[in-house]
Amino acid sequence: MTVFTMPCWKKRLDRALAVLGCLLFLGQALAGTIEPQKAELVLDEQGVALNADFAIKLGPRLVDAVERSVPLNFRFEFDLTRKRWYWANEHVTGRVIPSKLSFHALTRQYRLTRGTQQQSFDSLDEALKALGQVVRLHVVDKTLLIPGETYRAAVRLSLDHEQLPKPLQVDALAHRDWRVEAKTQQWEFVPPLTTDK
Questions:
Q1: pLDDT at 10
Q2: Structural domains in the chain (count)
Q3: What distance in Å separates the CA atoms of residue 159 and residue 101, rounded to the nearest whole number?
């Protein structure tokens, strides 16, 4: 008597692939995202200022970490380069601004720290909204800009995994739900020609 076991193995393989597909989908769903919604350069008294908005969504594991008083550090990055046809683009200026988001269990408030400025919020959504807003940040002096030239600006807000506590850094390398996908927005900027000196 001959027994064929091929259909049984095929069913098991199909189930394993379906489970693997669900796990991959779940892993992508749990990861957070930071997406730029709007970014613009505007003239100010000293040169050029930046306005930007980011939509921030943290995965459940990161939300849980914040609520357990693990601080999350973020990096806001701005870069401005001048296009040159004869050589590589010239780096004009750049800024990196660190921010820290933490939760204080005694006061039940979220605290956002940028440099020496601190703000407190009653909800995580309010804190993330404030973290994602950059308003009239002076980024470049007018003496560094050539009117009529084309510049390329780029902004990015990201979670700084290197600032996590050491055990969580290892976990962040192994598990996708600790990662936050951060996108960069780039656009061209041409300083207006001015007649006054």
A1: 56
A2: 1
A3: 10
Q: Torsion angle of alpha carbons 31, 32, 38, 43, nearest 10°?
A: -120
Please indicate, yes or no, if residue 197 is contained in any of the structural domains: no
pLDDT of residue 163: 75
Mean pLDDT by 10 residues, the chain (197 residues): 50 53 48 92 92 95 89 95 84 94 92 92 96 95 91 95 67 66 94 66
Phi, psi of 108 (to 5 degrees): 55, 40
Using alpha carbons, select from 185, 187, 92, 76 the residue that is nearest to residue 140: 92
pTM confidence score: 0.77
Relative to beta strand 72-82, strand 90-104 is antiparallel
Q: With respect to residue 14, please indicate whether it lies within any of the assigned structural domains.
A: yes
CB 128 within 8 A of CB 72: no
CA distances from 77 to 22, 80, 140 (A): 35, 10, 14
